[in-house]
Recover the amino acids of this structure.
């Protein structure tokens, strides 16, 4: 019985700790050392004579929580070529926060780093209109023009022109082009030209008659 007790005590003395306490981290040799604070990382693990040695994060890096790491995290970059700009610059204790430039919307948004992926707003096609303009969080919404209207540039739909009583359509309207009206009615031109034609016929008859009368009189 006594020998069993000795064995159990021996096992408990030499068994390594399964977990470290709150705000401690395990080292490679099985010790538990105090964590470094935000904005710093471990330069040297603790020893029996001294605590953990911490060093600040260098420019371009950060650490946003207590840790036992040897390297700080790299700051995110907001690439203008991808539609992003730095809404909040990187600090030793927090990462860069990105947002989108005008004309772009965010496709991937996180609380810690803001927008990580952006895309340019869609452009509506001719024959469509902008139903909802794009925002920093949503893309442009387009819809087709209704029958009887057109949009040559994909912005707004405009009703087709109605030709007046003195005009006639020479080109039908479409989703991308307006109705084209003639400058005057063919009927109006017909009635306008009829008296002129009659006048020419009358002149021709009179001229022929005069020649015939003159021939009889030996003019």
């Amino acid at each position: 019985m006594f020998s069993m007790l000795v064995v159990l005590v021996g096992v408990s003395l030499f068994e390594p700790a399964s977990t470290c306490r709150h705000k401690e981290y395990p080292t490679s040799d099985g010790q538990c050392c105090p964590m470094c604070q935000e904005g710093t990382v471990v330069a040297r693990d603790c020893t029996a004579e001294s605590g953990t040695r911490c060093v600040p994060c260098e420019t371009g890096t950060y650490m946003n929580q207590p840790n036992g790491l040897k390297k700080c995290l790299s700051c995110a970059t907001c690439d203008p070529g991808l539609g992003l700009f730095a809404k909040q610059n990187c600090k030793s204790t927090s990462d860069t926060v990105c947002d989108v430039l005008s004309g772009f919307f965010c496709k991937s948004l996180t609380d810690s780093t803001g927008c990580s992926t952006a895309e340019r707003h869609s452009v509506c096609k001719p024959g469509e209109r902008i139903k909802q303009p794009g925002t920093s969080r949503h893309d442009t919404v387009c819809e087709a023009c209704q029958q009887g209207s057109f949009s040559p540039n994909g912005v707004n739909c405009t009703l087709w022109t109605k030709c007046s009583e003195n005009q006639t359509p020479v080109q039908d309207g479409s989703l991308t082009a307006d109705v084209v009206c003639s400058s005057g009615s063919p009927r109006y031109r017909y009635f306008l030209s009829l008296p002129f034609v009659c006048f020419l016929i009358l002149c021709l008859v009179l001229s022929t008659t005069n020649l015939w009368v003159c021939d009889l009189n030996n003019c």
In short: Residues 186-216 form the longest helix (31 residues).
